[in-house]
Amino acid sequence: MSFLALCGVLERALQEQILGSYFLKGGVALELRFATRARATKDLDLGLEGPRGSRVDLFQRALALGFDAFTFRLKAQTRDMEQADTVRVSVAVAYRTRAWQTIEIDLGPGSGQLIDFIDPQVAGLAELGLPVTSPVRCLSMAEQVAQKLHACTSPNAAGRARDVLDILLVEILQGLDYVRAADAAQRVFAARATHAFPPEFNMPAEWRPEVEALAAQLGLAETRAAQIEERFRAVLQRIAEAMSR
After folding, report:
1. pLDDT, tens digit, for every residue of 213-238?
2. Distances in Å between the alpha carbon of 74 and those of 57, 62, 71?
């Protein structure tokens, strides 16, 4: 509910021309597409226009608009993320002036990206009488898969086991456009310049318990780490083969 309310205030900011663009990505974008079939996440990855130094100011101006009975307050602390062009902020959300929740938001770069317009697949909000922002602007699926593929195969991939499951979930629930994913992956890998595309993938031993637990939580048919690794390599190979089409 907090994330959708935030989308509402961002849409207002577009109409008021405070923002020129925005999009959701990461786990929240998958949750809005696939509802309970996606893994739950506690923070929001947001693409916002402008250089890192100006994004917080733009975001704060947008939050001041409010949405329905929700109001938002940017907390004082912010943190630059060393491995990406991203700033992490905390936002206090209130509903009808009463404290509701504090959410963590990563403000990343958001210009020149392809956007999908998604009808949120979240049950129960209408019954609660809460407004639902629809459609929601999400990073295109091909671009999101490319970014996750880069993250989980990079030299700094520690803690990225979940990206393997996210990519497989996209393939299972929506099907991958391998040509578009290959095009996006080549752009992402070239821009970030940490390792070559197509990458090698060998699942780290320390990921295996987490991968198996997540696979079981998501209700996947294959839950053993070796099976998941084999399937992920097959997806990676199909993306790589699509480069020549």
Report:
1. 999 988 888 899 999 999 999 999 99
2. 10, 11, 10
DSSP string, 3-39: HHHHHHHHHHHHHTTS-S-EEEEHHHHHHHHHGGGSP
**Tokens describing residue 170:** 């996209």
Handedness of CA 120, 124, 127, 130 (dihedral sign): negative
Query: What's the CA gap between 142 and 145, in Å, rounded?
Result: 5
pTM: 0.84
Closest CA to 106 of 52, 30, 142: 52
C-alpha triplet 202, 188, 228: angle, nearest 5°: 30
SS3 of residue 175 by DSSP: coil
Summarize pLDDT for 165-189 with one digit per residue, the tens.
999 989 988 778 999 999 999 999 9
Which secondary structure element, helix H or strand E, spans residue 117, and what is its range? strand 115-118
Structure tokens at 144: 């999101």
